[in-house]
Amino acid sequence: MNCKPLILCTFVAVAMCLVHFGNALPAISHYTHKRFDSMGGIDFIQVCLNNCVQCKTMLGDYFQGQTCALSCLKFKGKAIPDCEDIASIAPFLNALE
């Protein structure tokens, strides 16, 4: 029995499903702005929130994690913090005494 046609048919079916459902919007009905990079499948808000958590873990009390997370939501992930770039996290730093 030759399995090549079956494998090819399965591959085509999976590819068609990915193309059809790949650009699906999140389950937030009121969301109107671009949240995803449809070509790369990147969710900018989620990346922003994950970076806030990472910075809070790295910097502890020196970093305002909640303020960072709120800015991710407010600006829809357009300004993603980078824990190693002081300019991108400066608004969220505390000066502990």
Automatic annotation (TrEMBL):
<keyword id="KW-0372">Hormone</keyword>
<keyword id="KW-0964">Secreted</keyword>
<dbReference type="GO" id="GO:0007218">
    <property type="term" value="P:neuropeptide signaling pathway"/>
</dbReference>
<feature type="disulfide bond">
    <location>
        <begin position="52"/>
        <end position="68"/>
    </location>
</feature>
<feature type="signal peptide">
    <location>
        <begin position="1"/>
        <end position="24"/>
    </location>
</feature>
<dbReference type="Pfam" id="PF04736">
    <property type="entry name" value="Eclosion"/>
</dbReference>
<protein>
    <recommendedName>
        <fullName>Eclosion hormone</fullName>
    </recommendedName>
</protein>
<dbReference type="GO" id="GO:0008255">
    <property type="term" value="F:ecdysis-triggering hormone activity"/>
</dbReference>
<keyword id="KW-0527">Neuropeptide</keyword>
<dbReference type="InterPro" id="IPR006825">
    <property type="entry name" value="Eclosion"/>
</dbReference>
<keyword id="KW-1015">Disulfide bond</keyword>
<feature type="disulfide bond">
    <location>
        <begin position="55"/>
        <end position="83"/>
    </location>
</feature>
<keyword id="KW-0732">Signal</keyword>
<feature type="disulfide bond">
    <location>
        <begin position="48"/>
        <end position="72"/>
    </location>
</feature>
<comment type="similarity">
    <text>Belongs to the insect eclosion hormone family.</text>
</comment>
<dbReference type="GO" id="GO:0018990">
    <property type="term" value="P:ecdysis, chitin-based cuticle"/>
</dbReference>
<dbReference type="GO" id="GO:0005576">
    <property type="term" value="C:extracellular region"/>
</dbReference>
<comment type="function">
    <text>Neuropeptide that triggers the performance of ecdysis behaviors at the end of a molt. It triggers adult behavior patterns: larval, pupal and adult ecdysis, and plasticization during the molt.</text>
</comment>
